[in-house]
Amino acid sequence: MRSGEQSLRLAGLGTTIFQEMSALATATGSINLGQGFPDTDGPVEVADAAVQAIRSGRNQYAPGPGVPELRAAVAEHQRRWYGLSYDPDTEVAVTTGATEAIAAALLGLVDPGDEVVALEPYYDSYAACIAFAGGVRVPVTLRPPQFALDVDALRRAITPRTRLILLNTPHNPTGAVLSLEELSAVARLAVEHDLAVVSDEVYEHMAFEDDRPHVPIATLPGMRERTLTISSAGKTFSFTGWKVGWATGPQHLVGAMLGVKQFLTYTSGAPFQPAVAVGLALPDAYFHGLRDDLRAKRDLLCAGLVDLGFEVFVPRGTYFVTTDVRPLGWDDGMAFCRALPELAGVVAIPHQVFYDDVDAGRPLVRWAFCKQPAVLETALSRMKGPFSSRHRTNPPFAG
Ligand SMILES: Cc1ncc(COP(=O)(O)O)c(C=O)c1O
């Protein structure tokens, strides 16, 4: 009798940390700096275009790979920002968020027993989707303070069983932006071992430093033909609830992904697709404004966390900042995050759930700064009481 049992595929995956922490935020009335969603809407012309699409009857199934105008807009975006050229009909696909693109790519490319090399800490759906595909994840750990890529560790991680490298830059949760040198090293190894690369670039427009721009690995020599690049309207246009993502790459990689997508969701939110096409055609000023606004919020939150006594690893990209909680007298980020809502009315996310090597992430905590400045300021002021210097030497819940 197995009617009440979950499949073995789900074993060990548990509930995502975001569900646990967001429930805690609601139960305690805390400010949620855990989950990465902006608290303001994206561009009004994009929202208007969605309303217009709904009102004008674009409400039935879209073509499986996406509406033609969005596929054309994605191709044009890749050309305009990176000089990459893709055929909108065969080398671009629209997905239900980047999440579905990741899932479908892994299910379409990884066979049971294949190894997938990925940067650790991982965005949490990576581990789940590698497991669903029957693959084996092989982590390469990014370590503070720089969270730089250890190229020797990457080289050691590659074996004859490696199927692909799963990359993420700008990187969640560390905020690292891979340098050209790091990306070139990944590219050389991918070419040498004839590996595919799935590159999650959902934070592509959130690289803050001029001397460390976002570089799609598909632009490097020998990489266009082996890279599937993934991005998301949720991040670039602050419409996370629309769940519109896309992937670009050579036909064989896009086709493998679509082969799975057609049976997962078949197609994705029809009226949102033309609206995202409008967003992708916005002038450069929109994309630079998004980055500059988030840079200012990063600086606000980082300065406040430094004042409170955290060790702060200022991110070069994404909308997350990582801190080490040990200077405040805690040694376990999970215990810290479970106590924080009661203690200060704020929610953050412990890094350790994103690691196979839990010890590597144990004292680290991630905070989202894609919130209005007044919200960030309130969160910081709420933490002032509990994290005064008196408590710093004698923490109430030291983990
Ligand atoms: C690295 C990374 N990839 C993918 C996603 C998911 O994107 P979407 O909401 O478009 O599914 C996120 C969202 O937080 C993310 O941080």
If you average the pLDDT, what whole number results?
94
> Element order, helices and strands?
HEHHEHEHEHEHEEHEHHHEEHEEHEHH
Main beta-sheet strand count, sense and barrel state: 7 strands, mixed
Counting DSSP H or I runs of 4 or more residues, the number of helices is 15
Q: Return Rg in Å.
A: 21 Å
Helix content: 40-55%
State the separation between the terminal residues, measured CA to CA: 41 Å
Strand order in the largest sheet = 2-8-7-6-5-3-4
Strand content: 5-15%
Low-confidence stretches: 393-399
What structural class is derived from the secondary structure elements? alpha/beta
Give the overall shape: globular
Name the bound molecules: pyridoxal-5'-phosphate
Number of beta strands:
13
